[in-house]
Amino acid sequence: MKYKIALIVFLILVLLIPLFPDEQYLWDFTRKPKKENEQRKILTGEIFLLGQIRLYQILLSDQQGDACNFTPSCSHFAYNAIKQRGTVRGILLAVDRLQRCNPWSWNHYGKFYNATWIQGRGYKLIDAADRY
What we know:
Structural class: mainly alpha
Largest sheet: 3 strands, mixed
Helix content: 40-55%
Number of strands: 3
Shape: elongated
Distance between the termini: 50 Å
Number of helices: 6
Order of helices and strands: HHHEHHHEE
């Protein structure tokens, strides 16, 4: 019974919030969009994620060997995606890439990506973060 009452109160509060907006935090539609050549601001969370990826690349990546079917490797792809596209979109791109990187990727993705010979790594499918 307690949970039902708490759920009803929560739903009422959630439904009432849009009725009383705080004018101080309304959207500012007068702001101009960023120019193409303007540098993107890097956030603290983004720096933390990039640091974690670099730490993985330095400490753990060499122990697994060259298991990635793509070039650049999945960790380099994630690093570049987060750096270029921002935290949320970069993480989504990295998760998508990790799902595509599996032993059967040559069967499915070989026709979509160009394969190239890389010295010391063999044939790899080319998929850079710049494509997205």
